[in-house]
Amino acid sequence: MNPDVDDYIAGRDAWQPEMAALREILVGCGLTEEIKWKKPTYCHDGGNVAIMQPMKDVLGLMFFKGALLDDPDGVLHEQGPNSRSAKRMEFTSVKDVTSGKKAITAMVRRAVKADEEGVTAGDAPEPEHAAELTRRLKADDDLKAAFAALTPGRQREYHLHFSSAKRSETREDRVEKAVPRILAGKGLRDR
Fold first, then answer.
1. Cys-Cys crosslink for 96: which of 54, 85, 91, 159, Cβ 3.0 to 4.6 Å?
2. How far apart are the first and last CA of the chain?
3. Using an 8 Å Cβ cutoff, are 4 and 34 in contact?
């Protein structure tokens, strides 16, 4: 067991017993554990299999390729409207974790198999581009170059953020607020 994960769990205000119980099952499945994305992440042969997601109402165990896995028991939940391949199991108590051990173990086996077989979700569909961003990029060559230099994931996140606003004024405001971050080479949520 990874001491960094010990420290992570010890430093949490909520879900400590549930995380400890879940961790025991995951490590027992032969997964290695690391801290990635500031959360306990479980891997097999270097491939990411699952990550713990402590949230307000549930402790999630997100499978990176969950949408691509067979789920005969219906234990996986959608991550959100913009998630393509991730799905998660949700727990609210240690009893949920321990009574779900068989389902967790089966899902880990399916996830490891999918990783070994190289199963992928394919390329993400192109998100809607906000006209307000397009206009701003055309008017500023430095901003255009900085946006083009961002990773595809960061670009996608900005596109989703801008285009999700219903009013043009709100989209324009979001674009203007993001300009300094884009010029600094940062994504929407980067520090």
1. 91
2. 29
3. yes
Crossing angle (nearest 10°) for helices 141-149 and 131-139: 120
* In the block, residue with structure tokens 């940062």: 186
8-state DSSP, 126: P
Question: Edge-to-edge, what's the strand order for the sheet holding 47-54?
Answer: 32-36, 39-44, 47-54, 59-63, 87-91, 77-78
Dump pLDDT digits (tens) for 76-111. 998 876 677 889 999 999 999 999 999 999 999 999
80: its two tokens? 């959100």
List helix spans (H) across 14-140: 16-28, 94-99, 101-117, 131-139
Q: What is the mean pLDDT of the chain?
A: 92
Structure tokens at 97: 């974790």
Locate CATH 3.90.1150.200 in the chain.
3-117
Adjacent-strand bridge partners of 89: 61
Nearest to 5 by CA among 45, 54, 47, 46: 54
- 3-state SS assignment for residue 32: strand
Which run of H or of E encompasses 47? strand 47-54
Please say whether the beta carbons of 132 and 97 come within 8 A. Answer: no
pLDDT score at 85: 81
| Residues near 151 by beta carbon (within 8 Å), at least 6 away in sequence | 187
- In this predicted structure, the answer to whether residue 122 has a pLDDT above a threshold of 80 is no
CATH code of domain 3-117:
3.90.1150.200
